[in-house]
Amino acid sequence: MKKLADSRIIVGMSGGVDSSVAALLLQQQVSHGAVSGLFMKNWEESEPGGECPAERDVRDALAVCDRLGIELDAVNFADAYRERVFAYFLAEYQAGRTPNPDILCNSEIKFRVFLDHALASGADRIATGHYARVEERDGVYHLLKGVDPGKDQSYFLHALTQQQLSRAVFPLGGMHKSEVRRLARDAGFTNHEKKDSTGICFIGERKFREFLGRYLPARPGEIRSLAGERLGMHEGLMFYTLGQRKGIGIGGRVEGSGEAWYVLAKDVSNNVLLVAQGHDHPALFSRALSTDGFHWVAGNPPARLPYRCRAKTRYRQTDQSCVVEQRDGGCRVLFDQPQRAVTPGQFVVLYDGDVCLGGGVISATEGGLAQPDMARASGFA
């Protein structure tokens, strides 16, 4: 493959400060005219009565490209997004799980559909504003954490393949966010103070219940305690996640310890939401988890299993010490300390120091009541 300086690179431009600075840095590193931008439009619905967020973002991206003197192409990948990401998003919620569409969005849209489009256009690589790093060692591409611990996004990139990583460039991986904003300000980018995007990948910030209710019918049902007592009614299991406190609807009911109520599990078959009092209720903690499959970034698991490493079961979590072993085509992760609110449908991602080893979708837990079948077997549903 060509050296970076000799490559033609297309930068995924979102209109945000990160992708803008990624383009700025690459323009300084490669041959003149070898950097261009691409704006991906993957969602076509506007907020009721409002402007489509993508229209604002593409204007910001165009302003940056004009200032840099590079071309910006806009491509609609909405059909692929609906088929490969949004359909999965809805199916997981309908099954009572809590998905993370950002991970599939990266592996299926940004680094598959976009990458295929870029290569067909004559590019050698694509770049994004992710805070992560790629290192090639002895023919193997390794995904590393970004150096800014508050912005590291390797968790969301763990499903990338060797082929995808070989074509990926992350110019911000060795930087802190404050430095990125300073560079944007010094370059005269009008978006240098633009807030980071949040919400659903490519869909953005929405009133979640209202948005999800447009695609899936809500099925109200009972809220019960571990003793089987009916405490109230929920608005639909898809609107709740494990460990949730706010929005349950029984906050005024005080029993026992008088502590707040938290979601313990969802019994999808009986449409029952199980709750208990106390942030640290024992039923919220799991000592181990399993995945049905697992993606190893290097293409293969470590040479020796079981393997001691660290894991995240959600993006903002501190890495947790664990032992991983392969089992039935997937993995079992046993934690040194029980973990709170491990949620089926979310991803467990493994690390060895700064190196991201890979990850998989959590399918089951041991301990706690995260599994509906476990809740029923315990007589709580």
Protein architecture, described:
Helices cover 25% and strands 28% of the residues. It is an alpha+beta fold and 381 residues long. The protein folds into three domains: 183 residues, HUPs (Rossmann fold); 65 residues, Adenine nucleotide alpha hydrolases-like domains (SH3 type barrels), CATH 2.30.30; 89 residues, Translation factors (Elongation Factor Tu (Ef-tu), domain 3). A hairpin with a 2-residue loop joins β15 and β16. α1 packs parallel to α2 and α3 packs antiparallel against α4.
Which segments are poorly predicted (pLDDT under 50) over 5 or more consecutive residues?
A: 371-381
Strand percent estimate: 25-35%
Supply the CATH architecture of the largest domain: 3-Layer(aba) Sandwich
Q: Mean pLDDT score, rounded?
A: 90
The number of E-state strands comes to 18
Spatial order of strands in the largest sheet = 12-16-15-14-17-18
Distance between the termini: 57 Å
In a nutshell, what does this entry contain?
This protein is of the alpha+beta class. It is 25% helix and 28% strand.
What is this structure's SSE topology?
Elements (H helix, E strand, L loop, with lengths): L8 E4 L4 H13 L5 E7 L11 H16 L3 E5 L1 H17 L6 H20 L4 E3 L4 E6 L2 E6 L8 H4 L4 H5 L1 E2 L7 H10 L21 H6 L7 E4 L5 E5 L26 E7 L4 E6 L7 E7 L3 E2 L10 E6 L7 E8 L2 E11 L6 E6 L2 E12 L5 H6 L4
Parallel strand pairs: 1-2, 1-4, 2-3, 4-7, 8-11
Antiparallel strand pairs: 5-6, 6-18, 8-9, 10-11, 12-16, 12-18, 13-18, 14-15, 14-17, 15-16, 17-18
